[in-house]
Amino acid sequence: MRFDIKALQDEGGVIALSLDAASEIDARHQAESQGLTILAIRQKLALSGLFARRNGRFPLVLFSQELLALLDAGLNLVEAIETLAEKEQRTDTRKLLDQLIHSLYEGQTFSVALQQFPEAFPPLYVSTVRASEKTGGLSEAITRYVAYQSQLDVVRKKLVSASIYPVILMVVGGLVTLFLMVYVVPKFSSIYEDMGGDLPWMSQLLISWGKLLEAHGSVMLAGAIIAVTLFFYGVTRTATKRWVGEKLWQIPLIGERMKIYQLARFYRTVGMLLRGGIPVVTALDMVSGLLAPALHASLQNAIALVREGRSLSASMETHALTTPVSLRMLRVGERTGDMGEMMERIAAFYDEEMARWVDWFTKLFEPLLMAVIGLIIGMIVVLMYMPIFELAGSIQ
What range does the domain containing 12 cover? Predict the structure, then answer.
């Protein structure tokens, strides 16, 4: 990552510079080692920086799996991280691991060292490690997190794979439609215009479209490029995503499925934290940010009820954060005292329900999408050939 720094030199001058660093803390250390007093620091958000940051994302799951293998082989924590740093090829990742090792040699705990790099280690990971430090079960904590992340990746991959074919259909259908309207239709319009005579209204429509493209083709192309650019820019904005999400929540069928997906991730995360030894109220507070805004207020109200002494199942039921199945399973977990495992079972049940719904929806949506695309292309083709049919009928 690249950081823009404004700093004060020893002789009193103010300079601006850019540094490559694994984190903001690393950038501060680099600047201070040059004898500079930092006045302001911010991460560079240029497009190239965004792509570089995305491509250089810290491989947390791979790091956890390799660390777990080394710990199980008998290495201590510092030796394991040093081994990972020695084999690492990417500069940013090696710098981050070197900073971790330096913090551990200073006597900091592993969780405190991880907390210095929030862009690489999310709060859930840090909290899981911190809870394991009290019990001495670091390997078990890392194993739980890897399993948790793997389950989330499985659900995400199912959703992505289910959307690939419809997206391909829409792209291909759009390109075919664009080719017909931009190239084929104007050719037909020029033929009809040369024929002259009293043409049917379909022919008049084709001729008007052809003349419009011929006269203002470059302007329309520039407008289309600007419109597509603005569309993709708007789609990537956080406010736009929030607005679209709020509208989707208002659609009964889609909103209910989105709620199930949110609850599945919520229950799985809380279950992992509870099994790691984190108290239930603390776990609920930690995962509140995972829920959509439509459910965030309900969770805060449920947490308030739990603090007042109400049971977790009753609090969640009061604020519509359960389904009939999950409510019964929560009550069983309260009776047996194994709430963490029960929440993970609820998440697994929700994941299976989501998988069945996605499979049903794709089987229904794909034929409908093909029919709509075929209808649009068919209408354009009929629009092109109808004047010929009408002229042929008039000649006969």
Answer: 2-55
3 state SS of 323: coil
Left (φ > 0), alpha (ψ -120 to 50) or beta: where does 272 sit? alpha
Give the model confidence (pLDDT) of 87-127 as tens digits.
Answer: 888 888 888 889 889 988 888 888 888 888 888 888 778 87
Whether residue 191 is found in the same domain as residue 74: no
Between the two ends of the chain, the Cα-to-Cα distance in Å is 75
For the residues of 82-151, what is the DSSP string, one character each? HHHHHH---HHHHHHHHHHHHHHHTT--HHHHHHT-TTTS-HHHHHHHHHHHHHT-HHHHHHHHHHHHHH
Residues 246 and 266 in one domain: yes
Q: What is the pLDDT of residues 347-359, one digit of tens each?
A: 888 888 888 888 8
pTM recorded for the entire structure:
0.60
CA nearest 162: which of 349, 363, 352, 351? Answer: 363
Closest Cα partner for 212 from 174, 184, 182?
A: 182
